[in-house]
Amino acid sequence: MKKFFNTLSNIWKIDDLRVRIINTLLFLLIYRIGSFIAIPGVDANAIDSQKTREGILGLLNMFAGGSFSRSSIFALGVMPYISASIVMQLLGIAVPYFQKLQKEGESGRNKINQWTRYLTILITALQAIGYVKSQIPAEAKLFAEPLFTISSIFVLTAGTLFVMWLGEKITDKGIGNGISLIIMVGIIAQLPFGIFSEFTSRISGNGGPIAFLIEIVALVAVVMFTILIVQGTRKIAVQYAKRIVGNKQYGGVRQYIPLKVTAAGVMPIIFAQALMFIPATVASFFPNAASNGFLMAVSDYTSFTHNLIFAILIILFTYFYTAITVNPNQMADDMKKNQGFIPGVKPGATTSEYIDAVISRITLPGSIFLAIVAIIPAIASKLGVNSQFSRFFGGTSLIILVGVVLDTLQQIESHLLMRHYDGLMKTGRIKGRTAIPVAAGTTPPAI
């Protein structure tokens, strides 16, 4: 305990770190206050928040910190920005024009950032139309149409852009990655309600306090398992040739290339979830198709069929996303240019093949671990855990929480070590995490 208070004292003594932490807390407070401000012209009392607690709507509501169910001005959160960033990253892989921009340095990154913002506005406007039409009932609208729809689209779009601006300000003037922290705060905001709901359910006779304690222990175990997955790396030794420049010696040391077991991060789960929501969407548009047994099984997130397909998609997307984000040829070329080599492996094409083989071997267990984490919430629901609480047993939300916390703690520790203070731990160092990639030139957030 004394070590903990000494660390807090050291953090407070560093002026720059203290200001950054205070700025971060103030920006996050602004975001949380805004999440309770309803869209102008909406009667908040007439909104049924219960229908946004399940399925894709429940997931979106979690990422938005409850704003989605409250019809807040921040109802769409930062998800349109994340979607636009992912699209821009994929365009950077497939379209030569954007590939060229990525190689133009600062000017290219600025252009990609600008394209990302324009795309964010377009995506937000389209999602705002769908949100107003489907999530706000007629009895909750205080304005006549089409004035209400038009004004709400402008308000929701402005709200998302403001949240995006808050995230950028946190990154510049705060600690950690702003977009990641905003998503994390939205997820954590739902945790007390989930715990209270589960505690009330258990105490009222459904298992008693012992069952609740067992669930808490299980949650801690799942969090520890997720940390191991996020932190897991395979180090490849690299030897650099010795060079003498004047009176100084350069190189001649052995370093390591850390290849993460889950290099794709949370993206495979996001892509797989997007595909798994298609059957439910089809069923909502075609009532006759909803009676199809297979379609109903795929739409039920607790069914064996749904989770089997979900796990297979995660494994496939993990290989796909790792293949497009990790380039063994470029790594081999960079080593060759810097006169580095892997002991026992020839430089050039042989090195590229060796790195590719290592990545292929570690991606399989990484993808299986991601699939297990993704289906744990469904298993928890089958075992009787409340749906609001079961989401924290795995899936996208837990990986984001673990990743963002590790990344923020790693930045705080870096500030401490630069000022010659002890780190946050007695032994070892906190390592960063795999973030959700965004458009080139921006700091990657974690969704």
From TrEMBL:
<dbReference type="GO" id="GO:0043952">
    <property type="term" value="P:protein transport by the Sec complex"/>
</dbReference>
<feature type="transmembrane region" description="Helical">
    <location>
        <begin position="209"/>
        <end position="230"/>
    </location>
</feature>
<feature type="transmembrane region" description="Helical">
    <location>
        <begin position="392"/>
        <end position="409"/>
    </location>
</feature>
<dbReference type="Pfam" id="PF00344">
    <property type="entry name" value="SecY"/>
</dbReference>
<feature type="transmembrane region" description="Helical">
    <location>
        <begin position="148"/>
        <end position="167"/>
    </location>
</feature>
<dbReference type="InterPro" id="IPR030659">
    <property type="entry name" value="SecY_CS"/>
</dbReference>
<dbReference type="InterPro" id="IPR002208">
    <property type="entry name" value="SecY/SEC61-alpha"/>
</dbReference>
<comment type="subunit">
    <text>Component of the Sec protein translocase complex. Heterotrimer consisting of SecY, SecE and SecG subunits. The heterotrimers can form oligomers, although 1 heterotrimer is thought to be able to translocate proteins. Interacts with the ribosome. Interacts with SecDF, and other proteins may be involved. Interacts with SecA.</text>
</comment>
<protein>
    <recommendedName>
        <fullName>Protein translocase subunit SecY</fullName>
    </recommendedName>
</protein>
<feature type="transmembrane region" description="Helical">
    <location>
        <begin position="21"/>
        <end position="42"/>
    </location>
</feature>
<keyword id="KW-0653">Protein transport</keyword>
<keyword id="KW-0813">Transport</keyword>
<keyword id="KW-1003">Cell membrane</keyword>
<dbReference type="InterPro" id="IPR023201">
    <property type="entry name" value="SecY_dom_sf"/>
</dbReference>
<feature type="transmembrane region" description="Helical">
    <location>
        <begin position="118"/>
        <end position="136"/>
    </location>
</feature>
<dbReference type="GO" id="GO:0006605">
    <property type="term" value="P:protein targeting"/>
</dbReference>
<keyword id="KW-0472">Membrane</keyword>
<feature type="transmembrane region" description="Helical">
    <location>
        <begin position="306"/>
        <end position="326"/>
    </location>
</feature>
<comment type="similarity">
    <text>Belongs to the SecY/SEC61-alpha family.</text>
</comment>
<keyword id="KW-0812">Transmembrane</keyword>
<dbReference type="GO" id="GO:0065002">
    <property type="term" value="P:intracellular protein transmembrane transport"/>
</dbReference>
<keyword id="KW-1133">Transmembrane helix</keyword>
<dbReference type="InterPro" id="IPR026593">
    <property type="entry name" value="SecY"/>
</dbReference>
<comment type="function">
    <text>The central subunit of the protein translocation channel SecYEG. Consists of two halves formed by TMs 1-5 and 6-10. These two domains form a lateral gate at the front which open onto the bilayer between TMs 2 and 7, and are clamped together by SecE at the back. The channel is closed by both a pore ring composed of hydrophobic SecY resides and a short helix (helix 2A) on the extracellular side of the membrane which forms a plug. The plug probably moves laterally to allow the channel to open. The ring and the pore may move independently.</text>
</comment>
<feature type="transmembrane region" description="Helical">
    <location>
        <begin position="264"/>
        <end position="286"/>
    </location>
</feature>
<keyword id="KW-0811">Translocation</keyword>
<feature type="transmembrane region" description="Helical">
    <location>
        <begin position="73"/>
        <end position="98"/>
    </location>
</feature>
<feature type="transmembrane region" description="Helical">
    <location>
        <begin position="362"/>
        <end position="380"/>
    </location>
</feature>
<feature type="transmembrane region" description="Helical">
    <location>
        <begin position="179"/>
        <end position="197"/>
    </location>
</feature>
<dbReference type="GO" id="GO:0005886">
    <property type="term" value="C:plasma membrane"/>
</dbReference>
